[in-house]
Design brief:
4 helices, about 25% helix
């Protein structure tokens, strides 16, 4: 598996590197700037090269399959809509339903038009941590747009979004993030809030 990934990574490098040897950072490399290139970043590099690679400066890319790729972190996010179905922006869940029922439906989602199972053909969707949720906010704490998120993510309610992070001081509560100012709050897991799924990373 690791050898195959390495080979694919090298193929991606050869496929998208310009002849002068300068590599487009949006296509390859250390997306989260932690000084290392992780397996998920190599996979993102391969996917970027196969997709033609987004132009320089583009961080959030709409994959046209209900998913958004963040080229800075290497994470893939669920895109919301107003369709009234599983991805409807107005749906709210308790923490347990978000972590269980909602994620199970995403991973079992059937896209008959593409012959895929799982949103975007992936079955490893999960709820994001509170830290991951904050990475997609445009300007945490000083937002000048509401909701505080790039329009690429589709219609978004400027409300509170559950994270997978349990409050360490109270195991019956969890953290959620406000998409209108970027602050992190805690509430009992029986509360109902908005959700947005993610895959990759931790």
């Amino acid at each position: 598996m690791y050898r195959l990934t390495w080979v694919l990574g090298m193929a991606a490098l050869l496929a998208v590197s310009p002849r002068d040897g300068v590599v487009n950072a949006q296509c390859l490399g250390d997306f989260n700037a932690d000084g290392t290139v992780a397996i998920n970043e190599i996979i993102t590099s391969v996917n970027n090269s196969l997709a033609g690679c987004p132009p320089p400066g583009v961080r959030f890319v709409d994959n046209a399959d209900g998913t958004i790729t963040d080229n800075q972190t290497g994470l893939m996010w669920e895109k919301k809509d107003d369709g009234g179905g599983l991805h409807d922006k107005d749906d709210t869940y308790t923490w347990a339903d978000a972590m269980g029922e909602f994620i199970s439906q995403l991973n079992g989602y059937s896209d008959t038009g593409r012959g895929q199972t799982g949103l975007g053909g992936h079955s490893d969707w999960r709820m994001p941590t509170s830290a991951e949720l904050q990475t997609i906010l445009l300007e945490p704490f000083v937002c000048v747009t509401v909701p505080c998120i790039d329009s690429t993510f589709g219609p978004t309610v400027d409300g509170f979004y559950w994270s997978s992070t349990t409050n360490p001081f109270n195991p019956t509560s969890a953290w959620f993030v406000g998409f209108f100012e970027g602050l992190v709050f805690g509430d009992e897991k029986t509360g109902t809030y908005y959700v947005r799924a993610v895959r990759g990373g931790s």
